Amino acid sequence: MRIRSARTRLAVSVLALGLFLGGCGGSDTGDVEAGSGSIGTTNDINPHDPSELRDGGNLRLALSGFPPNFNTLSNDGNDTEIGAMLKPMMPRAFSTDASGALSVNHDYFTDVALTGTDPQQVTYTIDPRAVWSDGTPITWADIQSQAAALSGENKDFLIANTSGFERVDRVERGVDDRQAVITFAEPYAEWKGQFAGNSMLYPKSVTATPEAFNESLRDGVTLTSGPFRIASIDRAQNRITLGRNPAWWGNTPKLDTITYSVLDDAARIPALQNNEIDASGLGTIDEVKTAQGSAGIAIRRAPGNQFSHITFNGAEGSILADPELRVALSKGIDRQGIATAIQNGLVDDPQPLNNHIYLNGQEGYQDNSAAVSYDPEEAARRLDELGWTLDGEFREKDGRRLEIRDVMYQSTTWVQIAQILQQNLAQIGVKLNIDTRGGTGFFTDVIQPGDFDIAQFSWVGDPFPLSGLPQIYAYNPDDLQGNYGRIGSPELNALIERTISELDPQKAIELANEVDTAVFEEGFSLPLVQAPGNVAVRDNLANFGAAGLASYDYTTIGFLN
């Protein structure tokens, strides 16, 4: 499942996207060590055995704003910061290591297995100890209820992603209440991701009705199941505090609390220096240097599963409704120049991301971006052919100026990227206006309704990249999910359907790259760069930092004695 982020610097429970903008000719990086630009098989979390950590302590992290909805399965709650905050509190079926390899999460399930292929059948056996925070057992009924809510059959459920449940025929009780058997009507390649990665299991009280799903977690979440639970929400102090869950049956956490404070982007590094928070993503070389020179601060690095991009608005009536126009504009954008400018000194060899589905370093990654290769002369020629002719500095057609609005979260980094875009597009006669917005309501009030011509934000994935195909790149006008640009075709929908139905992993990769090529060719969106992974943390903080593709074990995070 893909989860979105408006920010370039995130709550550090997930990897922060480190972005730097300097002159395209380079910058003074001093003795800052550059990291790799591709996902590897390691992470950087200061690993220590829990016995080496002191009991207790408060891990202090930052949020950009209060969650509009604590239900990450909903369109309003599908945000990386919210997901990161919920992961210490909610069940997931699989854990991942730094290379993305999966293992059953035995805190919640004794086994999760593909138990049939004709039809496809998956059996979840729930750990008999697993309970919700009020002591009630986690049962097959919770799984059944979530599958029904995400199936897409009832459009009143405002879901972010069907997660393959539209392909499920039925969910049945197994040998007892602690076992669920999912039978698919159509094969689903990414079945392991239905209750893993960014998809968590919620209690049936949240997923039983559209009203509960859409509204019941707007002000907080009460029924959880993890080593931590919500202890307090203080809107006056802009603070959310997690405390230990007394109903937790697993290993006792080392930490007493995890506190999230709402901070502006510019306030995070000073807060780290002033010992007000314990970790922050690093957005620029200057911030890396500042953190590097601060007492008690260490820098952790491990590329992760986040990338920045530009989404085009191709809705009917939009100025960019024509796919040929979108591709022409894309050819006028120097993505290599952007990568060089913003990641100079942070990555060994800055490169743009050339795939919408796989990240550089993941199995399946290949460059499918030929359709949008940078060629400003060709871009200008195509604009001429489309009838957008120069009239002074900018182009016009039928009395309408080729003027577009670039909408983004109010962040220095995003604005600086937009300024490069502005310069690129001006060279081919396109006027770009920069339109910044606050973090609160950014997706709910701006991106989801399509209040943009182009928009800048990030996608944060997990080890289940195919699950994002129908969520983002398929187009159903009655069920947009993550297709905020309202772009697509029946042909692309059919290709996506073939891909997510393919149970052979290698064939699925081949089909996924066909999807990616088609997505580039229709000017759906334009990937920019993936995260280099610079995170500043308190130097005595263990088992936390730059996680790469790995999931955290929140019971082992803590401070050294």
TrEMBL record:
The keyword Signal applies. Residues 1-25 form the signal peptide. Pfam families: SBP_bac_5. Keywords: Signal. The keyword Signal applies. Residues 117-472 form the Solute-binding protein family domain. This is ABC transporter family substrate-binding protein. It comes from Rhodococcus jostii. The lineage of its organism: Bacteria, Bacillati, Actinomycetota, Actinomycetes, Mycobacteriales.
